[in-house]
Amino acid sequence: MKGKQTALFPGNEDKVGYWITPWDEEPFVSLKKEFDFDCDPVPYPRPEGYNGIVEEWGVRSYVNPPFDGPHTKFSSWAKKCVLEYQKGKTVVLIYPMYSWLRILVEAGVEIRSIGHVNWRNPKGQSRRSPMPCFLFILRPKEKVNE
Fold first, then answer.
1. How far apart are CA 100 and CA 104, in angstroms?
2. Which of 81, 83, 134, 139 has the fewest Cβ atoms within 10 Å of its own Cβ atom?
3. pTM metric for this prediction
4. CB atoms within 10 A of CB 81
5. CB within 8 A of 23, min separation 6: which ones?
């Protein structure tokens, strides 16, 4: 695997907030077997001058983006993941989410992006949402008798 993560925090020389993937624990043992990753675009230790956002990735990449330091803007990593996926590659991205979202995803929620919303107060004044909004839709598996 190109750029394999191999060490735990010896010095953190490049000031990147690394949290090394525990490949010897589940679910990572199973993920490694399922996807047979050939690229880690966020290697530890990171080679001098290496930037996974601009490098070409492998056919099956595992992405554990850095949380601090250079090259840590998550939207840049998300865009790069989509770009590599559009080239026909498999990308597995790990990133922490709120617990409430996990509850919905595990229940089988349908998610729709609706972008920024121009909310209105009772006086009719408008305020654009600072972040894009999503709809979380839970539908019954069978039609409920009404």
1. 7
2. 139
3. 0.76
4. 21
5. 5, 29, 32
Encoded tokens for 9 = 């925090």
Domain boundaries, the chain: 1-96, 99-137
Q: SS3 for 99?
A: helix
Mean pLDDT of 120-127: 94
Considering only CA atoms, which of 9, 30, 6 is closest in space to residue 18? 9
Backbone angles phi and psi of 27, in degrees to 5? -90, 5
Distances from the Cα of 52 to the Cαs of 11, 47, 56, in angstroms?
21, 10, 8
Give the model's pLDDT for residue 71.
58
26-52 burial: b if 16+ Cβ within 10 Å, else e: eeeeebbeeeebebbbbbbbbeeeeeb
CA–CA separation, 19 vs 90, rounded Å?
22
Helix (H, G, I), strand (E, B) or coil at 112: strand
What's the average model confidence in pLDDT over 30-53?
Answer: 90
Please give the residue that has the higher pLDDT: either 117 or 142.
Answer: 117
